[in-house]
Design brief:
Elements: E1 18-20, E2 27-29, H1 41-45, H2 67-72, H3 99-105, E3 127-133, E4 137-143, H4 151-155, E5 159-161, E6 177-184, E7 204-212, E8 219-224, E9 229-232, E10 235-238, E11 244-247, E12 250-254, H5 266-277, E13 283-287, H6 289-298, E14 302-306, E15 310-312, E16 317-319, E17 322-326, H7 328-336, H8 346-364, H9 367-370, H10 373-386, E18 388-390, H11 396-406, E19 414-418, E20 421-423, E21 433-435, H12 439-448, H13 457-471, E22 482-487, H14 494-505, E23 510-516, E24 525-528, H15 533-543, E25 550-552, E26 563-567, E27 590-592
Parallel strand pairs: 5-18, 6-13, 8-19, 22-23, 22-26, 24-25
Antiparallel strand pairs: 1-2, 3-4, 6-7, 7-8, 9-12, 10-11, 13-18, 14-17, 15-16, 19-27, 20-21, 24-26
């Protein structure tokens, strides 16, 4: 479409043309005489009303979806409103309706004296929005001051699924946040049948658990292999009529069957991730093949680097050695290709995807994107069209709030890695993998304790000095450690199993099971008296307790008084460290989002 047919002038994007009418308090579309208005007689006769339809607000030409498709799906399409009468101002997407109050006063909108000059924005501070989604994952969208005027349009783009208690009801949590990004291999959409099983209802094909630290200084993006064999837990799904189905769990299944198969929804995938890692996802974001095409096109392409030329007959991907830019169909082909990289496994394809995502993040946070209203508008429209999210964040304003929180993380402190796995020992010729029992648990413990994988220097310095001061000094013999153990977490029988482990494997014979704590707690704590510090150091080392778990009292213990260990939600099982190691396990390959890497 040309600029005029979309309510635009001089190629200025609609998102940059909304201004506040001081007489009404409503946002309206600014149209300059110099740009040449539409030949519509309604506009000519009613310049003071500044009419604008939702279609003029910008959006129909930016997405590959047609308005007919949106209306058929029950979404709030931009063109669903009826046309206003001549001389009357039409309702603008995103503005608050004031018609009833105006009618009560009997006052029409005050006339204006000619066209107003465009007001300078109140603030030019860039606000980065981080939309995350499936195969291409994290897309940073910048928002200018006027972008909120298109709230209703973007809000109407979003699909959602109610996952019940699988996620959080809060948009933003006070502590660390976990967002599960799911890319499905559902092959609906133009041209997608050629990628294989065109009848697939969709699996959890590409999965990333995005962990954002409590202080928002760093984030860890852990890829979960689709061919990981694990136990899929029982899960509940919500039907359209409001009723609930309980889908039985199945042992020894591929991770990708946690979605789509047997009626499972993203909440089942979230439950599976929690069962494997001990990290509860707060939200999910899901996209399909079309999203990769639309988003990479909206941003103008993503720069990638190949260590060698690529000519893949299966995916039809052809790329030269060195740097090039991909978008649309070629971007999807790159993310789907496995035969051209490494040992042609899904694990090597994950590495390429991670490198691609790092490049995408750099592009989204570049000044070229953040200062380009036209690109931002296209990207926001494509991103909201692409997303399916949990109902707790199924609103453009809520997504903006979540995105602004996530975008506090500096790109250099975002780390991509893959869940540590080993070949499945149950298969003679392994084609699937299982979690590495040692390295996997070490990494999960680090993420559960919110330990950064990047060098956030001041944070690490403070944590190390605090831990060193706490553990500095003599330690008691395990036989002299006296402790009462209570269960304040979610695992039944945790206090009893911990006491058994302490007595039989650690020699802490003076440990006692005190059953359930008075109330549930999130973090494990150890309360001790000043004269029990040597005992506390011994137990802290055994349990892997962080400095924050140590609660020293002010008065000395008397006689046979015991320390009190209360297990919280961070407790994973007897013998498993509460806090992981200070560094990631060796041989776990990491990719920083701010570093360009060539795919091999």
């Amino acid at each position: 479409m040309d600029a005029h047919s979309r309510g635009r002038a001089d190629d200025i994007d609609p998102a940059d043309q909304w201004v506040l009418n001081p007489h009404t308090g409503n946002y309206e579309l600014r149209l300059d005489h110099s740009a040449g208005e539409s030949s519509s007689s309604t506009r000519t006769a009613s310049s003071s009303a500044r009419t604008a339809t939702a279609e003029e607000a910008g959006g129909r030409g930016e997405s590959s979806r047609s308005s007919a498709t949106r209306e058929g799906s029950g979404r709030r399409g931009a063109g669903s409103r009826g046309a206003a009468a001549d001389g009357a101002r039409r309702e603008v997407p995103g503005q608050r309706s004031r018609r009833s109050s105006q009618g009560a006063r009997g006052a029409a909108e005050p006339p204006t004296s000619g066209r107003r000059k465009r007001k300078p924005p109140k603030s030019r501070k860039k606000k980065a929005l981080l939309w995350t989604g499936g195969v291409m994952a994290f897309v940073v969208v910048g928002a200018s001051v006027g972008a909120y005027a298109l709230y209703q349009k973007f809000n109407g783009n979003i699909d959602s699924i109610d996952v019940g208690d699988a996620g959080s009801k809060n948009v933003v949590t006070e502590g660390p946040m976990n967002i599960l990004v799911i890319g499905t291999d559902k092959r609906t959409g133009k041209g997608n049948e050629g990628y294989g099983d065109k009848g697939s209802i969709g699996h959890a094909d590409t999965n990333i658990l995005f962990h954002v630290s409590e202080d928002r200084t760093n984030a860890t993006a852990m890829s979960i292999p689709r061919d990981l064999v694990t136990d899929i837990p029982e899960c509940e799904t919500k039907k359209p009529d409001g009723t609930t189905d309980v889908i039985p769990g199945t042992p020894n299944e591929r991770f990708n069957t946690s979605l789509g198969q047997n009626g499972r929804d993203p909440g089942c995938t979230m439950k599976t991730v929690e069962a494997i890692t001990g990290l509860k996802p707060d939200h999910f974001m899901m996209v399909d093949f079309n999203a990769v095409k639309e988003l990479t096109t909206a941003v103008g392409g993503v720069e990638v680097c190949m260590a060698k030329p690529v000519d893949d007959p299966k995916s039809h991907l052809v790329l030269p050695q060195g740097k090039s830019t991909v978008q649309g169909e070629k971007a999807l082909a790159l993310l789907r290709t496995r035969d051209s990289f490494g040992n042609r496994s899904d694990l090597d394809r994950i590495k390429v995807q991670q490198q691609f995502l790092g490049s995408m993040i750099r592009e989204m946070k570049s000044s070229d994107t953040l200062t380009n209203p036209k690109k931002l508008y296209k990207l926001a429209d494509a991103a909201t069209n692409a997303l399916t999210v949990d109902s707790a964040i199924a609103d453009a304003k809520k997504l903006m709030t979540l995105a602004q929180e996530i975008s506090k993380v500096d790109t250099k402190n975002i780390t991509f890695l893959t869940m540590p796995v080993i070949d499945n020992p149950a298969e003679p010729k392994p084609v699937t993998v299982v979690v590495d029992p040692v390295k996997g648990e070490q990494l999960f413990a680090m993420m559960r304790s919110d330990t950064s994988l990047t060098e956030v220097k001041q944070k690490e310095k403070d944590a190390k000095s605090k831990q060193a001061a706490l553990l500095k000094g003599p330690k008691a013999d395990p036989a002299d450690v006296r402790v009462d153990v209570l269960n304040g977490g979610e695992i039944p029988g945790a206090a009893g199993s911990t006491v058994t482990w302490l007595q039989n494997e650690q020699g802490v014979l003076k440990s006692t099971n005190k059953a359930n704590a008075p109330e549930k707690i999130k973090k494990t704590t150890l309360e001790y008296a000043p004269n029990q510090a040597d005992q506390a150091r011994t137990l802290a080392e055994m349990m892997g307790l962080p400095a924050s778990a140590m609660k020293q009292g002010t008065t000395d213990a008397e006689g046979l008084e015991a320390m009190v260990l209360t297990l919280g939600d961070d407790f994973r099982g007897a013998g498993q460290l509460i806090t992981g190691p200070a560094k990631a396990p060796e041989d776990v390959e990491q990719v920083r989002a701010d570093k360009a890497v060539c795919a091999k």
